[in-house]
Amino acid sequence: MTAADEVVLEVADLRVEFRTDEGRVRAVRGVSFPLHRGEVLGIVGESGSGKSVTSLAVMGLLPSSARVSGSVRFGGRSGDAELLGASDSELSAVRGRGISMIFQDPMTSLNPVYTVGYQIAEAIRAHQDLTRDAARKRAVELLDAVSIPHPSERVADYPHEFSGGMRQRVVIAIAMANHPEVIIADEPTTALDVTVQAQILEALRTARVQTGAAMLLITHDLGVIAGQADRVLVMYAGRVVEAGTVEEIFYTPRMPYTLGLLGSQPRLDARTLRLHPISGAPPSVTDMPPGCPFAPRCPLAAPVCQAQEPPLAVVGTSGHLSACHFSDRLDGLKPADLFRPVSRDTAP
Ligand SMILES: Nc1ncnc2c1ncn2[C@@H]1O[C@H](COP(=O)(O)OP(=O)(O)O)[C@@H](O)[C@H]1O
Ligand SMILES: [Mg+2]
């Protein structure tokens, strides 16, 4: 077995429910996936599909109102551990050192009253036996690694003296500080300007290369995943509805929802944008009706789709999975074959 076949994180039949005044919110409904050592697994889906709740469950960061079941096994340096139901002290040992997390808004991770250098150094000293001076020196190296200009001067700045993109790079520096085996990045570029997004993706790449960590890259934007991920999970209404290599997802998708996401994606190389978006909105996951949750928006929907939720099953190659009663019919289809066009002229 090569290192790349080794599974560093195994999520199995993860289910998360919230009891609310409006009813039972079934946020995650049986999500399973392996994350292999060093790979980038993209998780994509519209807002509300359960991406963040999945990642928070892995980190043990859900509020106490959540009911969680299933399994999250972390195969770290210090042996195999079940993270679901683990104690706070077990989880704090894993967080930061084994698995680190990058959120959408860098200010949720940074403390406004401490310098960035202090915060990076403290993150290092929480897990490694280093003097203050050595940790500060390492903080400068990390700022340099994520392309902060003049790192030995900027290390003494406070977060508010940095731009949003630079703050996110500081968060990435903290995430890589203890050589984690897994980095979870949840919408890491969503709050930032498009021009800054590419730099953040580059910094994430540096973090991966320097630490060798595997990454869960979570985003609603297929464009973010395209140049980064090895494999992709497409989520809808709390479930994985398609899984495959990045090539399978982009070139031979076998779930209408994935085709819809691809059709909603503007192509920067086209002068005239011809989009084939999905109409309608994702369903509420409170007291869901039976059947395929995508059926109300699906051009292929038939009576069986209202009656029965399709299982996630192998299509084509062994690692390509799709949850659709009609996945066979999608072989070779493009977004334009399923969804109606909406033209938008981009020429000035
Ligand atoms: N603490 C909570 N209490 C109740 N419902 C929640 C809570 N957190 C998330 N949800 C619901 O769970 C579903 C999935 O949310 P989330 O994982 O944040 O979606 P995504 O990250 O894919 O946009 C949504 O319907 C959301 O409203
Ligand atoms: Mg989210």
Describe the structure.
It is a single chain. With 348 residues, the protein is α/β, with parallel strands linked by helices. It has 2 domains: 227 residues, Rossmann fold (3-Layer(aba) Sandwich), CATH 3.40.50.300; 94 residues, no CATH class. Helix content is 30%, strand content 25%. Strand 1 and strand 2 form a beta hairpin. The longest helix has 18 residues. It is globular, with a radius of gyration of 21 Å. The mean pLDDT is 92. The structure holds adenosine-5'-diphosphate (ADP) and magnesium ion. The site of magnesium ion has 4 residues, from helix 1. Magnesium ion (MG) binds next to helix 1.
How would you sum up this structure in a few lines?
It contains twelve helices and 14 strands.
